[in-house]
């Protein structure tokens, strides 16, 4: 992934993370915001995590009986890489994909 231009789905996820640098984001919320299925988004998140671009953490539920939620945020190296990767994406004559909107 380092030397290649990111896919439009990866670019959309990176864009969402860069909009709120340093914030923890939930996978489910990202899926809804970006309009990506879990089968598309979670492999992207796992690859980014495996490469050290994302930190991951499980958050305990606020209410008993609810499952923990997986959260993600860009690492410092991830912010640098995401900025460079999105630059490659947009210079390849593709418009940067826009998130569908804030999760409801």
Describe this structure in words.
This protein has about 100 residues and is α+β, with helices and mostly antiparallel strands. It has helices at about 10-20, 25-35, 40-50, 75-90; strands at about 25, 55-60, 70-75. Strands 1-3-2 form a three-stranded antiparallel β-sheet. Helix 1 (about 10-20) packs across helix 4 (about 75-90) and helix 2 (about 25-35) crosses helix 3. The longest helix has 16 residues, at about 75-90. The model has no long low-confidence stretch (mean pLDDT about 85).
Number of domains: 1
CATH class: Mainly Alpha
CATH architecture: Orthogonal Bundle
Average pLDDT over all residues? 84
The main sheet comes to: 3 strands, antiparallel
Spatial sequence of strands, sheet with the most strands? 1-3-2
Structural class: alpha+beta
The first-to-last residue Cα distance is 31 Å
What is the count of β-strands? Answer: 3
What share of the residues lie within helices? 40-55%
CATH homology-level superfamily: Winged helix-like DNA-binding domain superfamily/Winged helix DNA-binding domain
CATH topology description: Arc Repressor Mutant, subunit A
So what's the overall shape?
Answer: globular
What are the secondary-structure elements, in order, as H or E?
HEHHEEH
Nearest-angstrom radius of gyration?
14 Å
Task: Specify the number of helices.
Answer: 4
Low-confidence stretches: none
Strand content: 5-15%
